[in-house]
Amino acid sequence: MGRTALIAGKGSIVNEAIKNLEDPLVIALIKDPEYPYDYIFNPGEVGKILKTLKKEQVDRVVFIGKVEKKGIFGGYKLDLTAIKLLATLRSFKDDEIMDKVVETLEREGIKVLSQKEILSNLLPEAGIMVGSIDEKLKEDIAFGFEVAKELGKYQIGQTVVVKEKSVIAVEAIEGTDETIQRAGKYTKDFVVVKVKRPTQSGHMDLPVVGDQTILTAKDAGAKAIAVEAKETLVTPEAVDLASKEKITLVAVDESMIREWSS
After folding, report:
1. Does residue 222 contact residue 169 with C-beta atoms inside 8 Å?
2. Which residues does 187 contact at the CB level (< 8 Å), separation at least 6?
3. HEC string of 66-112?
4. CA-based angle 222:210:156, to the nearest 5?
5. What is the pLDDT of residues 60-104, one digit of tens each?
6. Pairing between β-strand 248-252 and β-strand 222-228 as defined by DSSP bridges
7. Would the pTM of this model clear 0.90, i.e. be above it?
8. Which helix (H) or strand (E) is 207 found in, with range?
9. Residue 72 CB: number of other CB atoms within 10 A?
10. Any idea where the domains of the chain sit in the sequence?
11. 3-113 has which CATH code?
């Protein structure tokens, strides 16, 4: 059996994956990563990454951590392999890009492991993790969940911010933190809702709540964060920090949403 590679982006979630893997080959795709790594590449250096995986006899990979999608539109220097790969896409929708990555690796004999498989200990069951919720908060969470799921069908993002059953901000290419910050410019005591897109596989890009998410939410004025149970990765540091900063943290499932929205 060959080696397992961890292809890593940004976030404390990467350290959790390193703990759960046995001697992984860590390939960082960001500058100045805050975790140990063996190689570092620009995300557009697809050819170099594939050659490195072969050289290191890797037969399994897992993708963990945030890599900025907006780099595709001009921020990344793309090698010939990356250019050819992108040219085969019908669109730059998230699922299509990720499916193409999986297809490319599996064609090389490399299996892409599910994030759920590696980080199952970070997938919360339905229930209140920190704080408490009242009827008004339940209504906002249910509303935000339904909006986020509907937007997810169009692969717009995973996060919406709501208050009084009104949408304050919607995540697009900028990412969760900037979405939360933008909401904070307009109001306080809002609710952040994160869900998995309906069409999304568990291979990569599952929603994540880490310590930085909590800090951003606190600074912006959020009162609660709701995540989709068993489909969102929540780090222990995030739970501890939410408790310290008095931000309600709850994992919800479809049955709870049906009850709260009725």
Report:
1. no
2. 163, 168, 221
3. ECCHHHHHCCCCCCHHHHHHHHCCCCCCHHHHHHHHHHHHHHCCCEE
4. 70
5. 999 999 988 877 777 788 899 999 998 999 998 888 889 999 999
6. parallel
7. yes
8. none
9. 17
10. 3-113, 123-261
11. 3.40.50.20
